[in-house]
Amino acid sequence: MSLFRYGTETNDVIKKKIHVFAILVVVSFLCLWMRVWYLQILKWQYLTGLSENNRVRMVTLPANRGMIKDRNGETLVSIRPAFNLYLTPEDAGDLGPSLDKLSPKISFDRKKLKKAMARSKSFKEVLIKGDISREEVAFVEENNMNLSGIHIRAEPLRNYVFNNLASHTLGYLGEISKASLESLKDPKYKQGDFVGKNGLENIYESILRGEKGYKEVEVDVSGRELKLLRKLPPESGNNLILTLDVRIQQELEKLMVGTVDQNMNGSVVVMKAQTGEIIAMTSSPSFDPNKFAAGISPQNWNALVTDEWHPLQNRSIHGQYPPASTYKIVIALAGLEEGVIKPDTSIFCPGHFRLGRGRYRCWKKSGHGPMNLHDALVQSCDVYFYTIGHRLGINTIAKYAKRFGLGSSTRLGLSQEKRGLVPTTQWKLLNKKEPWLLGETISASIGQGYNLVTPIQQASMMASVANGGILLKPYLVKRIEGPEGKTKKEFFPNIVGQLGVDPDHLEQIRKALRDVVNGTRGTGKRSRLKNIIVSGKTGTAQVVRMKSNEELEKGEVIPVRYRDHAWFVAFAPYEKPEIAVAIIIEHGGHGGATAAPIARKIFKEYFKLYPPGPSAQSS
């Protein structure tokens, strides 16, 4: 019985072990089946992609961005080949040693690289550094076998041929932001792409960018290309042909170079008076857009944004300044049109104007004596215009200023153009919560107080005076051409308004502006040319208000930051006007001394290149 019982117990133990083993087998097969299901069903697409990308890669081929040329076909912005250093994380393995080997020879931002890798798929290329030098290229090629996943690609790079030339107009490129990617929702863009960030590069982004191409290549386990399977070539972007003349633009850039004792920050705008074409436009200080083309370094970016003179600001359209005595053109025309004066109306200037208890001085302390309109413009008598402005009132002044386009965007086509400011009684109530004061009209009458204008507005105003009262839309692009040179779109002059004034009144203003430059007592005589009759108006805009009894001590020098701004606006020739010019030199002092000589050189250069007809020349 004992053996039987023992045998029964043994059988039970064996049965239990078989049961446990069977359960283990079932569980193991179940786990194995679940793993197969996970890999084959859930992760099928991901693993297929990895497998395919270990053998075949789809490589993006960047498109050549369209060129930008001047009116004569001179290339301003082109494309040059650049060597860019990329990393494919999937092929890199342990990345640390590779980056450690790179860093002593090639400087790059590791933190930025890690962020880019975190946003990208493992088999997608991530840019380490753009536009590396030939020495850096040689180093990477020599150590190719020890830098798995790291490779060089030759790609087109934006090239600003003349460096700083017209940089604010042309603009620059920058890497597309995450916010822009999300807002655009355009599959043609991806993280790491460079897009126009400013100027014409930004405004005409869709015209210039072109279409990317693709190629399908077979690669080895290290990501090296072995064989080209398929290729869709990229399409180049369209070209912009501008109204600018690079020769005159270069002359402007030279004239705006500062000296040790004189700051030459400011803007110059040269515009065709009969069409609105911008022949040249500069803002100083400027910057080199080439520094942005491959990705600007943090050091260079910080240097630009912390510069006290703001080199990234386009003063031609963003700079807002008091128009100073150039505003007397508006006041004079308003006075004639409203009948508060006639050309021969005489107003006595004792050197000051009294309004109640207020005493507003003329720039000439001893006074000009009796002045008519012509002489008051030529000698820029403040008292004469104080008197006209007081008679007109601020709202009437504003009506005529707006006819000239002041207080509104010129719609030049560059982003964030400022409107300037033409004050009215209603404007002050809404913005200052205060009533308009009569004394503020006196200041406004000579372009001070709340008045603000931009250089492009001033050029447009002078063009309308020159061409007989037609307000034109300024423009920078003459036409758009395809990569093969065929014209796709052309731009023409666009009339946006009329001054709507008596032609005789406008001619009275024009004659006075002629003698501002060519008369014996004219304030703009330093812009005078021998064979061309120039017409213009000077202006000196106060930066810091000085008390009437405040005088500089002998030998005392005003710090640059507190000096007045120098204006000169002009057109030429007098008989058949071709171009209008607006010049503002920040903290340049008197317009006649600083800005007028610049205008003279601009006119001289322009008419050397584009000689006027015999009737436009002085005898």
Describe the structure.
- The chain has 619 residues and is an alpha+beta fold.
- It folds into three domains: 2-42; 56-242, Penicillin-binding protein 2a (Domain 2) (Alpha-Beta Complex), CATH 3.90.1310; 246-285 and 315-548 and 557-610, Beta-lactamase, CATH 3.40.710.
- Strands 2, 3, 4, 5, 10, 18 and 19 form a seven-stranded mixed beta sheet that branches.
- Strand 8 (213-219) and strand 9 form a beta hairpin.
- Helix 11 packs antiparallel against helix 23 and helix 17 packs across helix 20.
- Residues 546-552 have low confidence and may be disordered.
**Total beta strands:** 23
Largest sheet: 7 strands, mixed
Radius of gyration, in Å, reads 35 Å
CATH architecture descriptor of the largest domain: 3-Layer(aba) Sandwich
CATH classification, class level of the largest domain: Alpha Beta
Element layout with pairings:
Elements: H1 2-42, H2 44-55, E1 56-61, E2 68-69, E3 75-87, H3 89-92, H4 95-102, H5 110-119, E4 126-129, H6 134-142, E5 150-160, H7 167-170, E6 173-175, H8 178-184, E7 194-196, H9 199-203, H10 205-208, E8 213-219, E9 225-232, E10 239-242, H11 246-255, E11 266-272, E12 278-284, H12 290-293, H13 298-305, H14 315-318, H15 328-338, E13 347-349, E14 352-355, E15 358-361, E16 369-371, H16 373-379, H17 382-392, H18 394-403, H19 425-432, H20 438-444, H21 455-466, E17 470-472, E18 477-481, E19 487-490, E20 495-498, H22 503-518, E21 535-541, E22 565-572, E23 579-585, H23 591-609
Parallel strand pairs: 2-10
Antiparallel strand pairs: 1-8, 2-3, 3-4, 3-5, 6-7, 8-9, 10-18, 11-12, 11-23, 13-16, 14-15, 17-20, 18-19, 21-22, 22-23
